[in-house]
Design goal:
This protein has 7 helices and no strands. By secondary structure, the chain is an all-alpha fold.
Length: 156
């Protein structure tokens, strides 16, 4: 039973193995997040928000377990946080090709730059810290994307 739970935690934490990408695993995880969001984009925004919450809670548990197994505070192969952040970026917005690309780029930028308080949230221990900084990056990217859509509504 323990092995099955550990295996499931790795599958979730690595976003179906994308965290094992040899180059830019965070970007690979974000790409998986974007692809997984496509069917969710057709659902009303409250369902999208609920899905984000579920991914967050499950991600905290999976990321924390994998980090403990590897004895690393924030392992690079854990990318479920990128999936959650990407989903937050795109929630309640029209998923057109322009929005998808802009949302992807904005989220990656915010995840790398980690404006306050995202960087501080990394210091929280366990799965919470792994997830929270990317949630904040997703919030920033979402807000920037909304402003962009107000300025350039043709993008929607």
């Amino acid at each position: 039973m323990q092995r099955a739970i550990d295996f499931l935690a790795r599958v979730v934490a690595t976003a179906f193995g994308s965290g094992y990408a040899p180059f830019a695993p965070g970007t690979a995880g974000s790409a998986v997040g974007l692809l997984l969001f496509i069917p969710l984009a057709r659902r009303p925004w409250p369902w999208q928000l609920l899905a984000c919450a579920v991914v967050f809670v499950v991600g905290v548990a999976a990321a924390g377990r994998v980090a403990a197994l590897l004895k690393i505070e924030d392992p690079g192969l854990v990318v479920v946080d990128e999936v959650a952040g990407q989903w937050i970026t795109l929630t309640a917005l029209p998923l057109t090709p322009v929005v998808a690309i802009a949302g992807f780029v904005l989220f990656r930028a915010m995840d790398v730059l980690k404006p306050w308080p995202a960087r501080d949230l990394e210091r929280v221990h366990g799965g919470w810290g792994i997830m929270l900084d990317d949630v904040m990056a997703g919030v920033y990217a979402h807000l920037l994307l909304r402003v962009g859509l107000l300025i350039w509504p043709v993008a929607a």
